[in-house]
């Protein structure tokens, strides 16, 4: 239609560095499917980011395919969303190099994820781990994204992306759209079940703290049963003093749609045992259809291949346009 208003664009991604967690579901993917009608959506499997930490190649391939199947099982219709693998679109590497040259050593040194990951991987503090935010900025800016739906832990990376884009635009004119982070109200920071002061993370050494999206129901229930609480025996939202219980309330609220007040009255006078079992069951029911659909899709490799090939083609069309513009601006001659 000639007078159709251009839809705003969304880009986000997840690293296929392991099995997806309940944190990445509640903080990110769950919120994506509903955006497809209103926005022009691009969702990436950020495989290039994963090699900042050593990966087992066969596992990386398996995680990438499983993650694609999970995206679709979570309601991301490939007809309505562009689903693609980052390494299939060379423009990501091309723009990342240019942006590296417009990103300051000092600002990269302040990134909390870099500090955390270099503490965890002290024997492999490589240059990619350090410049990771410039690659992530390229991911976003290539698509001229308006919004970047992420969990709270990625906010700092979207902010540095805005700074890099602003710096580049300041020199060369309006090349990049400045993106906004888009962070959910509930589930923005799902914490570990065993150490609720840390975020739930697939790289957590303590497997009991982290719930995986495709995990067996009995394992999920067991992990919630073991979740750390406190000695007060009262289900009340108070993240500073009751981080374990408050985290479970967040998860329960995200899984059932109930408010914190409704949850407090539902469990008034009950022990934590009942509460933890209810949260576990709600999560099992939330994830069950996704697990079943993911398994079904994984049996159809030809379909998954057609999805990522088509996605790469569509993504590259947009991304190449941005790289062309950037190359011209910085003074590279046209081939
Ligand atoms: P990653 O792969 O660590 O996490 C993927 C998404 O899940 C969210 N998330 C959480 N949300 C709430 N609670 C948690 N415990 C939790 N754990 C993870 C993250 O906020 C994220 O939204 N650098 C990114 C991947 C990336 C990206 C991008 C994202 C690469 N390029 C461009 C957006 C745009 C990352 O490592 O996310």
Give an account of the 3D structure.
- The strands form 2 sheets. This protein has a 3-stranded parallel sheet with strand order 1-2-3. A two-stranded parallel sheet has the order 4-5.
- The model has no long low-confidence stretch (mean pLDDT 95).
- The protein contains 13 helices and 5 strands.
- Helix 9 (217-225) runs antiparallel to helix 12 and helix 10 crosses helix 12 (272-298).
- The protein folds into 2 domains: 2-188 and 301-330, HUPs (Rossmann fold, 3-Layer(aba) Sandwich), CATH 3.40.50; 207-295, Tyrosyl-Transfer RNA Synthetase (Orthogonal Bundle), CATH 1.10.240.
- Helix 8 (155-172) links the parallel strand 4 and strand 5 (180-182).
- With 335 residues, it is mainly alpha-helical.
- The structure holds tryptophanyl-5'AMP.
- Residues 11-15, 23-24, 27-28, 46, 49, 136, 139-140, 148, 150-151, 153-154, 157, 188-190, 199-200 line the site of tryptophanyl-5'AMP.
- The site of tryptophanyl-5'AMP has 25 residues, from strand 1, helix 1 and helix 7.
Short account of what is shown:
The chain is mostly helical and 335 residues long. Helices cover 51% and strands 7% of the residues.
Number of structurally distinct domains = 2
- Which percent band covers the strand fraction? 5-15%
The backbone outline, from C-alpha atoms, is: globular
Q: Count the strands?
A: 5
In DSSP terms, counting alpha (H) and pi (I) runs of 4 or more, how many helices? 13
CATH architecture of the largest domain: 3-Layer(aba) Sandwich
Q: What is the CATH third-level topology name of the largest domain?
A: Rossmann fold
Bound molecules: tryptophanyl-5'AMP
